[in-house]
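Deviations from the work plan: none for this task. Representative record:
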Amino acid sequence: MSENILQAKNINKSFNDPIKVKVLTDINIAINKGEFVALTGKSGCGKSTLLYILSTMDTDYQGELLIDNVSMVHKRESELAKVRNEKIGFVFQFHYLLDEFTVLKNVMLPGLKLGKFSEKEVENCAIEKLKILDIDKLAMKKANQLSGGEKQRVAIARALINNPDIIMGDEPTGNLDKKNSDIVFDLFNKLSDELNQTLLIVTHDLSFADRMHRIIEMEDGKIILL
Amino acid sequence: MNSKLTISIAKALLLARWKQTLVAAVGVTFSITMFIALLSFMAGLNDLLDGLVLNRTAHIRLYNEIQANKNQPVNKSPLYKDNYNFIKSVKPTNARLQIYNSGAIIRTLKKDTRVLGIAPKIMTPVFFNEIAINVAAVVNGIDVKNETKLFYFNDYLIEGASDDIEKISNSIILGKGLANQLSANVGDRVQVSNTNGEIFQLKVVGLYQTGIQELDKTQSYTSIATVQKLMGVPNTYITDIQLKLKKIPEAPAIAKEFTKLFEIDAIDIQTANAQFETGSFIRTLISYAVGVVLLVVAGFGIYNILNMMIYEKMDTIAILKATGFSGKDVQTIFLLIAISIGLIGGLVGLLLGFGLSAIIDQIPFKTASLPTIKTYPISYKLMFYLIGAVFSLITTFFAGWFPARKASKVDPVVIIRGK
């Protein structure tokens, strides 16, 4: 068995407002390096909630989360931010770019934050990622001048900038038309095949899920298919 | 944390929505401008009102009061030492208004480091004779140089030159009201008779107006030597020594000390002008109250604008946090934004406040009481500008700090899910 990159043990979560509702029950997942995993289920089954917990962006849960075999429980906020910066690339349903910056700067920001390389090196790396996604010609445009599909590809480039251990996507095609959805999924496939990138993508589109290595299906806060 | 990156992000966020930034900065500017202009104006008016009294009044006045001798012989006699003596109808005798040994007193006072300046003076009642009528008035013999330095004598002179009373012998400066009564102008001669009925001819060299009718109708000024000649007294004769101190609040204590030291009567400005003290205190209180209210209102305005601005950027905070910026980074970025707005808005506010003060300073303002004042008074105190600068920085700091801290503590998912 290959190396575990992400491991969730007995994760439970409830919303307390206005009444206590259990949204996740005893979630146990392990994802290995290089896997291309789909997390599917009906709307409201808790798949997005689970993804936010796995990405350390939500700390309000019970259970244990290991990323790269390091426990994320009891870590301080700044340490979690560092984990997100270094090890996780995240693609939202809505592209979530900073309109104040150019495409290139948007992609570069997490790299600059990491601070391992000089600005020049980060810039070269960002252009390289944009090339992989075939949008290098948009580099100097402002983020709000792009189409939805283009924005989503920029978001993927941003997720890739620090060569993360895992890329997570929360319905990254949910807001796109068929043509752009295909482009984005082809990109994920390309990343998985050519770069052996680990990917965990939440989607309710089963036609896409079927093309992935592995499907995790959820229903009412529980995992019904691993 | 890479400070260069934080600064570049803060700068980009500020410039990208420059209209919003401008509105926030203008809010700060407006508040500070109003604060500076209003406080400068109020302080200017206050100084003017204080000056009406303070400029003309000695902090301590040394003189001899006409009063009965406190040491009656019966009390000094050893025979009646243990008795309680009642003496009725004690009358003052030998009323001498002259200050004894005035030369020595002045020399001692000149060495006193608490004393800012000394102006000796003689006052004597006279009659001005105009054909058939006699006008009762007072002639003040003054030391022009010290009187001008300490009591701004020239500020109240509406015609002529004060030096002339010392340069031209037998000359006089008349109060405006008195001159009107005598139909006298500069260059005319007036006839004066002293308390003994002797008559002198004096030349009018100037006119004087305080704005207080009572004074302008009864006061006239000439040199000390001329008054001594009028009274027929030697040139050591002086009835008043006026003092200005470095610190006004010390006046009552120093007055008491001098009473004992020189065996003379001394009255301090606080006792002589109790109603002025109260008025001045209340005016100061009002300006402080207005200043504080202005600051509080301005503070809330600035706080609101910046708060709104940061809450509008919640998305940005969520993205930054999701891509690996820590809460502290986010807080630093937004504090930088807030403080830059405070710095620029505050600086422009100080300049505009100064400009507005300067404009008010040019508005014509004529008052009978102060002939030299031509425009509204403004006080250019550095203190107001310092308060304004510090205040704009502090309010913007907190206005940025509270929402930024709150934003830095929430999980990014809370912001994202809230959409």
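Residues 55 and 88 of chain A are 7 Å apart (CA to CA).
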